[in-house]
Amino acid sequence: AVSITSQPWSQSKCVGSSVTFLVQASGTGLHYQWRKNGVPINGAADNHSYTISSVVVGDAGSYDVVISSGCAPVTSAPAVLTVSVIAITCPPPTNVTASTACRATMPDLTGRAIVTGACGAISSVVQSPVAGSTMNLGATTVTITATDSGGHSANCATTVTVIDATPPTITCPANTSVPGDVNCHGSLPDLTTGAVVSDNCGS
User: Residue 203: pLDDT above 70?
Assistant: First the structure.
């Protein structure tokens, strides 16, 4: 009869790394068939171990092995493979107020980005355009990229919009007199043409 003495164990791996599931069993003439999510894996038979040399996201799942020796087969406990994938979430869109020159300075958004699933330490978080660069009025797309010590990276995008918060100025025309008719009524002239309007941002 087959008796499993050591079960395979669940593991968490990074993309590109290797993983090996191992089972120990007693009995004679043992045959092994490894499975993923209950489906036999091609080429993973008659070996007490199963190795994936370079893990990809699609390898995540539940692995077990069916062991037989001519009698009733025995199935091992499941071992779950979790694949870590770096991901980044950008901060929400941001508004900044333009200067009197109708420009603004790009803020540093890297500290507000949320990075998860990194394999090892996070080696860098950078943004483009870089903080401190000059922006004109309107929306600018900012891409933030995170890289971990394993060389894996992920990026996201958000927007920074420069808002013109300075109101325009207007100078009204001088007081105007209009003649009255026989009923002492006068017509109101169009004074808009005599008003002087200016805006520091040109619109």
Answer: no
CA–CA separation, 102 vs 137, rounded Å? Answer: 6
> What's the predicted TM-score (pTM) here?
0.71
What SS3 string covers the chain?
CCEEEECCCCEEEECCCCEEEECEEECCCCEEEEEECCEEEEEEECCCEEEECCCCHHHCEEEEEEEECCCCCEECCCEEEEEECCEEECCCCEEEECCCCCEEECCCCHHHCEEECCCCCEEEEEEECCCCCEEECEEEEEEEEEEECCCCEEEEEEEEEEECCCCCEEECCCCCCCCCCCCCCCCCCCCHHHCEEECCCCC
